[in-house]
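Below: protein 1.
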Amino acid sequence: MDLACIDLWINYFGEKSLLQPLWDTLRLNYQDYVRSPLFPIVLTVSSYFIICLPYLICDIMGDTWPWVQQFKIQPSQRPTASTLLHCAGVTLYNHVFLVLPASVAQWAWRPPADLPNQAPSLLELIAGVTGNLLLFDFQYYIWHLLHHKIRWLYVTFHAIHHNYSAPFALATQCLSGWELITVGFWTTMNPIILRCHLLTTWAFMVAHVYVSIEDHCGYDFPWSSSRLIPFGIYGGPSKHDVHHQKPSTNFAPHFSHWDKIFGTHADFCFSAAKK
């Protein structure tokens, strides 16, 4: 039995891949789509709005769903229709005038991606996604810290994201064009720097969209990443909520180690209903 388990581990987490059938389906049946330079952009944009939708419904339903509102981090602060429309408008503007032109430019200038025959192992995919998140966490910590410490950078580029002290899902991409371009650049370049498989790259992009929205959702659900990942190494929505209340703290977007190392960490309390 033990040998069978070891053999299964070696085959499907090492030499072979549980992801091979999925990769073969994409590579053989949808080759023209997934090779397109537009595919990563379509993937991330569609993922953003799909993942935002459940949180948006929770915000709209409000007190009519008390079983959901018990997990609200700031129960007295809920987005109004005007704030939701403002963030949706900023997001739409950025996608039409920045993301769309960038998509067209990539489609025109960038050659289609090569598709390797072999899928990554499950361990390679997990390691690649984790590595990309850690690298982005460091990059954005430095960027974020500078844009709070240097007033001109804050006022010119970052202040729009702090219009709301109680974040909500649609506020995730309520950003200046400069910040959106910077985030998009790192999200695109980091998998290239780490030499990730395309499937790992796409998984990272979707995972990054998810955790970014979760950080801003305003809810501390039992399945929040910060509750599932042990030892307090991951910040999650409560930590980022504190940043919007105390902007001189918690600059790292996802993990906690950089804030703890540089003394910018601030503790947070989980929703009272879960204590």
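Below: protein 2.
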Amino acid sequence: MKEVGCEPTLITYNAILNVYGKMGTPWTKIIALVQDMKCCGLAPDLCTYNTLISCCRAGSLYEEALDLFEEIKLAGYTPDTVTYNVLLDVYGKSRRPKEAMEVLKQMESNSFRPSVVTYNSLVSAYVRGGLLEDALELKTQMVEKGIKPDVYTYTTLLSGFVNAGKGELAVLVFEEMRAAGCKPNICTFNALIKMYGDRGKFEEMERVFREIKVCKCSPDVVTWNTLLAVFGQNGMDSEVSGVFEEMRELGLCLRGTPSTL
């Protein structure tokens, strides 16, 4: 822009920072852009700070996120709901559930009401930390506060129990999800397929796969890879061939053949 005589505005820089965050751009490059912005005489606003904190999620840069949070107040701004939610999410992705919970407490003490997004980040933080019972308690807590769990809440819990080898609890979460009228997404189904596949319950696994279509979802790369891995590891060659055939019928690009993979 500068080369053609067009000076970027604060809105321009905020938009670029947002893109950098979504791309997982290295922190050094993000900071370099901020310095360039300041050299142009543009001071960060609250949107800039919120975007920068959001950028910290990719590298689990919780210390940098906290520094930015403090800088917001020094710059004369008041953190808003977005600020608290992104800071909480950074702590969650950094596997620091206790710090995430402190953000929630601070958020509520400043009269900001948590949303389902807030609690989903918290649930994710506790699941990542292996604190599954606490994560389940958080789901109860959000219901008591009148916040309805959504597909991300349930799927995060379900996946956590599946990865911990607690299939019975995963099934209970799925049943509660269905009873609450919450429609599963492909990540929900993938977790169930993995669970039944790992346990050698192939009929249940195939039933879940068929249910994907009934719910008008579409299998993704994780679905196909899980099916191929489970069938392949168990020497179920005809099933592997069947999966490949279905993928071909859907026009999916395949490399190799069942005999070469």
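The two ends are 48 Å apart (CA to CA).
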